[in-house]
Amino acid sequence: MPLESNLVIRAKQVVLSQGIAPAAIHILGDKITTVADYEDCPAGCELVEVDEQSILMPGLVDTHVHVNEPGRTDWEGFETATRAAAAGGITTIVDMPLNSIPPTTTRAGFADKLAAAKNKCAVDVGFWGGVVPGNTGELAPLLEAGVVGFKCFLVHSGVDEFPNVTEEDLRTAMPELTRLGATLIVHAEVPGPISRTGIPASPSVVENAATAPNNRVLPISPDRSVRPTRYETFLASRPRAAENEAVELMITLAREFGTRVHIVHHSSADALGGLRAAKTEGLKITAETCPHYLTLAAEDIPDGATEFKCCPPIRERENCEQLWAALSNGTLDMIVSDHSPCPPEMKLRDSGDFLAAWGGISSLQLRLPLVWTEAQRRGHSLNDLSRWLCAASAQLVGLQNRKGKIAAGHDADLVIWDPKKQFEVAGQRLHHRHKLTPYEGKMLSGVVEKTFLRGRKIYDDGEFVGEPSGVLLT
Questions:
Q1: CA separation, residue 308 to residues 179, 180, 297 (Å)
Q2: Statement: residue 224 has pLDDT above 80
Q3: Residue 68 zone, left/alpha/beta (φ > 0; ψ -120 to 50; rest)
Q4: Which of left, alpha, beta for 265 (phi over 0: left; psi -120 to 50: alpha)?
């Protein structure tokens, strides 16, 4: 009789599609073979017993990670990013097509990316391609080579090698994306409302354009009345209208071309009604938000604390609560990290200049406890958490039959974590390449204890196990 399992992981609290229940997860090789009763443990199998207070959940899927390799590996890199992921209970990440050099906008650029990632990844890694002006002919070759979909920016991306698209560019690219059945993910801010704020860029943006190009969209002015160290100055420079108009544009184009559209790192509560109506209409549109928009508030950000800068910006507390409500009613589909690291000197912490500092927050490793700490306070369940952090993101990139839930036939990607245990965030204990974090000193609930990737333990109570075994999902 053939062997049906060589490993059983059982727990009293297993997050299954139908709810939380005791179960024994039978694994053979890299796949789950059976979700069995708790007492069903065949003789001769390795058995992992999960403590009663701990949770067994699907490995997390994070579809918005800037790894930045090759070309800007000093910003992050596959080795450090995927170790941070493993320590955070994440078993699959999807790398963004920009901040690496070359970007993933051509098949040749994708080949360079794959070569850079080979044999370095602690977790499984997929890849987004990019839509930039003039590369429509590259979309089919990129999809054939294995990207999961395509990203574009409607405003300057922050790096010149990944230019933003206009509506005219989208009208060229979207018919091809529809033909290919590919998803277009969109950084949804348009430049008009940003320019109309009249808030000038800091002179250091001009002097240090290579390190802070994401602010070039702002008009240059000698006006010294603007106080760039005030967070409210930066917040005013990226108004909600920039997101609102971008979302309206993408809804219009999704309706016209039938393209599957996904709005990334959504922050403006004002645009939620339009998104909800578009979904009700039946358009193929989804949206994500991020831990920093759900756990931080503009009112609490100190002057000069540039580690809090990201684009779109962290908005007011009332906006945050509306995002939580949108997760509850399904307007927002998932929560991803938008892990966007840079060397700490690019944050210009010494000067505290929000307008000139690089925008991006590193939070890959902390995604689970950040979201759980706030979700449980609002009465959300472990099944809500699993949907937002695992299943919905797997669905976005076409991995729903392999990742994102505990079910027979799926990869044996699992995380064991204690939802009640608390810890204080210390940047130096994070596995991201750079340690500056807006969460320094924050008390969080939810400690990752063990992470399994395709049936193999890769993280165990603070220690990494074995050599990198992540595969490239092409």
A1: 40, 38, 10
A2: no
A3: left
A4: left
Residues 389, 85: Cα–Cα separation, whole Å = 13
pLDDT at 385 over 50: yes
Answer for the pair 417, 368: CB distance below 8 angstroms, yes or no. yes
Beta bridge partners of 450: 416, 460
How many contiguous H segments (helices) and E segments (strands) does the chain have?
Answer: 14, 18
Provide the residue type at 421 as one letter. K
- What the block records as the tokens of 473 is 């999902």
Query: Which contacts (CB < 8 Å, 24+ apart) does range 273-281 have?
Result: 274/244, 274/247, 274/248, 275/247, 275/251, 275/326, 275/331, 275/332, 276/326, 276/329, 276/331, 278/251, 278/254, 279/330, 279/331, 281/255
Token pair in block for residue 362: 């590193």
Q: How many CA atoms lie within 13 A of 229 on its CB side?
A: 8
251: Cα within 13 Å, side-chain hemisphere: 19
Per-residue model confidence as pLDDT tens digits over 7-62: 999 999 999 999 999 999 999 999 999 999 999 999 889 999 999 999 999 999 99
- The Cα-based distances of 147 to 97, 139, 263, 377, 411 in angstroms read 10, 9, 18, 37, 20
Report the chain's terminal Cα–Cα distance, integer Å: 34
List the one residue out of 385, 464, 461, 468 whose CA is nearest residue 48: 461
pLDDT in tens, 59-104: 999 999 999 999 999 999 999 999 999 999 999 999 999 999 999 9
Alpha-carbon gap, residue 105 to 126, rounded angstroms? 15
Of 415, 414, 416, 420, whose CA–CA distance to 446 is shortest?
A: 420
Each residue's pLDDT tens digit, 168-205: 999 999 999 999 999 999 999 999 999 999 997 543 33
Cβ–Cβ < 8 Å for 140, 177: no
Tokens 């503009």 belong to: 298
